[in-house]
Design goal:
The chain is of the alpha/beta class. The protein is globular. The chain has 7 helices and 6 strands; from the N terminus they run H-E-H-H-E-E-E-E-E-H-H-H-H.
């Protein structure tokens, strides 16, 4: 599964201004609502429910919030780089500045897990996260995310 299968450049928000985890998630949810046609509150509630199970802040400034919704027909990915890192209750207690939001249909099962694994492998690569942190704009961020084949990121 490639990142380009999950998202297009319209799913990238560069230099998002947020001062908290909640604010960052709300901004991503607003964009996700536009792309999926789903209600912002519904999307936000699914993400909060998942965060209550355990943080999606995976460490080294990266978070991968995700959730499943029966209304979705396919997987959707959104990515943001925050202007300033925010506390995210990450496993390493470090603030987060790179967030990849993954939304999946309730029936996605293995595809959801494959997508999570793909995003996780990609964002564990220090060279890629360094490039993402220095990219100029949404198009450049998308190009970095989409250029790395799954086999190379493994």
């Amino acid at each position: 599964m490639e990142i380009a299968d999950l998202m297009g450049v319209e799913g990238v928000v560069a230099n998002l201004r947020a001062t908290s985890k909640k604010q960052a998630l709300q901004a991503l949810v607003a964009q996700a609502a536009k792309l999926t046609g789903l209600n912002e509150r519904t999307l936000f509630d699914v993400l909060l429910e998942r965060e209550r199970l355990g943080t999606t802040g995976v460490g080294r400034g990266v978070a991968i919030p995700h959730g499943k919704l029966r209304e979705l027909k396919r997987l959707h990915g959104l990515f943001t780089r925050l202007e300033q890192p925010v506390p995210f209750d990450a496993v390493d207690d470090e603030p987060v500045d790179l967030i990849f939001l993954l939304l999946a249909p309730e029936s996605a099962g293995a595809d959801h897990l494959k997508a999570l694994a793909r995003v996780s492998r990609l964002l564990r690569d220090r060279a890629i996260t360094q490039r993402l942190r220095s990219a100029e704009d949404a198009a450049a961020l998308y190009a970095i995310l989409a250029e790395t084949p799954a086999t190379k990121a493994a």
